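Ticket #4471: complex job returned nothing on first submit. Input attached below:
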Amino acid sequence: MNNKEVAIKIRNLSKTFMIRENTKYTVKELVVSFFNQGRTKSYKVLDNINLDIYKGEFFGIIGGNGSGKSTLLKLIAGIYKPDDGSHIDYAGKLVPFLELGVGFNPDLTGRENIYLNGTILGMTLKFINTKIKDIIEFAEIGQYIDMPVKNYSSGMMVRLAFSIAIQSKADIYLLDEILSVGDARFQQKSIKIIYEFKRQGKTIVFVNHSMDAIRRLCDRVMLLKKGEYVVGKPDKIIKMYTN
Amino acid sequence: MFSEFKRRFSNRRQYIDLLWVFVKTSFKMRYQNSILGVFWVMAKPLLTFLLMFQIWSGFGKNSQVGIFPIYLLTGVVFFTYFQELVIYGQMSLLEKAHIILKVSFPRQIAVVSSLLNALINLFINLIVVFFIIFINRLALKPEGMLYFLFLVITLFIFCSGLAFFTSILTIRFRDLKNIFDLGLFLLFWSTPVFYTLENNPLFDQSAIDFINSIPFTHLLNQVRASFGLYYEIDPNFALTFFIVSVTLLVIGWRSFSVRVKKIAEYF
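Support reply: We reran it on our side without changes. The output follows.
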């Protein structure tokens, strides 16, 4: 892999959350507790990660709950600020799918939510106009597209959200548990799309709890555990994790 | 290849579209499922105007401020604009927390989109103002209307600068919402939004001096001046207001750009 072009370069990446016991949200609480500020505890979720993710690579991240998988994705996506001295660089356009249907408004119709969610994901209105038919078709929403999404079943909702998300044109995709949406048939359809991304040379960073999906899809896998990490071939890393 | 600068400029179109969709959606959602819909934009200033007119028109008639209904309505509508700019700007990041936690985009878009809703509301309310002006056959001067537009834009700039501070602070200290509500309530009563200072037997000189010491009083006077009501356009005030607003915007933007990087951790 060393000859390949680097898509995401991570150097000395650490992330510490400062959690104050008894967080103060009101001025009254602030004044009352002025002489008793409470203890601020620091939680180092990620510690000195150095990693290159290559262009066209399908990179998996596994680990138990609270191991820092989603935090790592949010750091790469620029949602969280890393600790001082950390560096994250990426080549090309990056789109994070950390949750399907971000910004979905239950009172808006499916069609209106396509425009809302699409622009939040970085699409232009002009681009959405050219893709709206494909989105509706892929989501299998049909005649319900002009109905408020609060009347959709949860399956319809995630199908619509996934269909919008896959239209994003990017070089790097960050996927957090989004391949387990819909019924078995829709999941197969979704995985086909992700394979298509891979075939097009897109870089995919993928968090999933399904070891089967990780084994089938990923070129390399990172195991996160208590701030430490190890990277390697899927079989080896999955074995370490499950043991 | 890794240039943030290049990335920012290539994303300009998508950010404009995102701003537009945010403005459109929040405007629509504010009045979704309500029978009267967009009429609610006008209801608050209009009902305030009608009530205040009923109570204060006696004093208004005796004052020299010109046509009292227009004096009153311009005050109420402009105060409502200021109030909405302050509140919408302050709550802008909190209202979009669910998006900010999941997607990276310039957070300034969330702030500006909320402020633009206040601007849209102002333009809707101006329909009523111009209707009352038409009924009262008040002749408006083009330079006056240009000056009014200048005041509207400058107040928008001022409140944008303010919102770049308050939107972040409100995430940390939720009491600020109540403090600003209280401040705006007090400002409403302590500035000549609905009453006049001229020939008003209710106020002695010390009260008038106090009211005149509040900068918002001068802003209201200038709004009325732009409609040709009693006051004179004051170029010194206009220049000072503009310089203060732009300075606040520049400082607010810079402070926001630095501090906003950590806001996802504060929600």
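Chain A has one domain: 56-242. Closing as resolved unless it happens again.
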